[in-house]
Amino acid sequence: MQRSRTRTAVDILKDIQPDVNNRYQVKSDLGKGGMGTVDAVDDTQLNRILAMKTLAPKHAKSPSTVESFLKEARFTAQLQHPNIIPVHDVGTSPDTNAPFYTMKLIEGESLLEVINKLKDKDPTYEKKYSLFERLNIFRKVCDALAYSHSRGIIHRDIKPANIMLGPYGEVLLVDWGLAKHIDEEEEKANPMADHSFEDSFLTHDGIIKGSLAYLSPEQAFGNIREIDRLTDIFLLGATLYHLLTLEAPYNYTEVAKLLNHAENAKHLHPLEQPGCDNLPLQVTDIITQAMSKNKDDRFQSVDAISSSIDYYLSGKHASSLKTYKRGEKLIHKDSKGSEAYVVVSGRVEIYHDDNEKHNVLEICEKGAILGELSLLTGKNRSANAIAMEETSVLVITRQMVLDELNKMPPWLEKTLSSLAFKLQNTNNDIHPFISASCALPVVTQTYYLFMEINFQAISENNELPGYSREQLAQQVADNLGLPKERTEGAINTLIQKQILEVDSVGIITPADLNELRALLKFIEMEGSKMKDTSTIGQDIPVSKIRKFTEIYRTLNSI
């Protein structure tokens, strides 16, 4: 029986057209490696600049090397996606018969170069590549890989050096030299495996393939049959690890030590890397799940990673719901603020007590946020918060707020933090009657409101109009900038003490406008540091002193 002849490199390349017309003119050298070169070339037929990858002539005689080179070109050409570099043409050099393929020229830098600039604290890069921007870049890489997986192709060498960033927002996953169909038999040897990178490693039996600093356990062990889509998931996690911590997961110079750590997925937790303690937990959880040693514990698809990133970027968080019974405190004055609350149902009273006096600052209802200033500043709480009835709230943790601030430009984050500090520092000085007695201003406003409508009634020969209880309390509150709850209490006291009277339809008018004026004079006298009693008997009837004293004390307790 006649033995079949082994295919040579010439046989493999016989259907590849040589560039006999010198269509591609080399403009500049973009890079050289052990397996070949990458040049910027002028496409003379279409008048455009492309990148050309050419196999070194000394390797163009090896059938396996030529097959691997053409396989890389064909895989890349099949993957037509905005985040995968497009391949335009394949051919051979008429002089050396070395194969080449042309592709889009990326005028930019690799993600690894960006990471190194960030690690060097380059201010331009720190400003441009916020956490939010880096996660958006990573999402585009996920899109590219999800597409290739849908076509049954795995990359096997995802790392920052193989992600290119263009000047106009382009993100391209490149270097498909280790790519293979998921159901394809693993070749015994692939000389192309380290064709373009120094930190890739391949035994002559084809055992270890991929860049050592990011290896999955199955790659480190050389479990060829275990390398699949979930291997790419691990490599995505390792890339995100480097992108956010600015350190590769396995950063060791000794190959044996590095492989030992990679086999066990043993690396520092992202939060343990220097300067990374403020990384969002939601994102570091994505990294650690993607980089699980056990493949069953990893995300089971690229789409699952993408959804988790999208969930974070959209500001969605798994907030916990808490319910407080009536009279139960949500916030204690002077305590540390590690949480804020969004009222879902019920009502919450914000208050503080001074010298046995209960000062209501605000009533929070559905949709209100409380405790946010202390959460932002880390300073102690400035007031108490108590449930006025059964109340449910969503809990916002400090970490959740920091995660959202990290998405903002640095100047905006600092502006918000600075504003929060200033607001809290001036919280007690915002209004002079928040913590002090509001007796004088409330009675003064009440008197002048009735004086105004009394003047109008006299000029128009009408009866003295009045206000409803709600209208009067709201008007006084608006004029003074106080919570309506405080003015309502004062108005009720004036009604109970018969300074104001309510008719059958609920309209309030002064029982005696002169008595209201006398009460005002009495409160002015009592509130004065140098008490002038000369008005007693003139503006203030002696017979009213006991009544006015009782009213004054009651108003001061509100």
Can you tell me about this structure?
With 558 residues, this protein is an alpha+beta fold. It folds into four domains: 105 residues, Phosphorylase Kinase, domain 1 (2-Layer Sandwich); 210 residues, Transferase(Phosphotransferase), domain 1 (Orthogonal Bundle); 110 residues, Jelly Rolls, CATH 2.60.120; 118 residues, no CATH class. Helix content is 38%, strand content 18%. The protein has 18 helices and 21 strands. Strands 1-2-3-5-4 form a five-stranded antiparallel β-sheet, with helices on one face. It has a four-stranded antiparallel β-sheet with strand order 11-18-13-16. Strand 14 and strand 15 form a beta hairpin. Helix 7 packs antiparallel against helix 9, helix 14 packs across helix 15 and helix 15 packs across helix 16. The longest helix is centred in the C-terminal third of the chain and has 21 residues. The protein is elongated, with a radius of gyration of 38 Å. 35% of the residues are buried. It comes from Lentisphaera araneosa HTCC2155. Keywords: ATP-binding, cGMP, cGMP-binding, Kinase, Nucleotide-binding, Transferase. This is Serine/threonine-protein kinase. InterPro entries: cNMP-bd_CS, cNMP-bd_dom, cNMP-bd_dom_sf, Kinase-like_dom_sf, Prot_kinase_dom, RmlC-like_jellyroll, Ser/Thr_kinase_AS. One of its GO terms (molecular function) is cGMP binding.
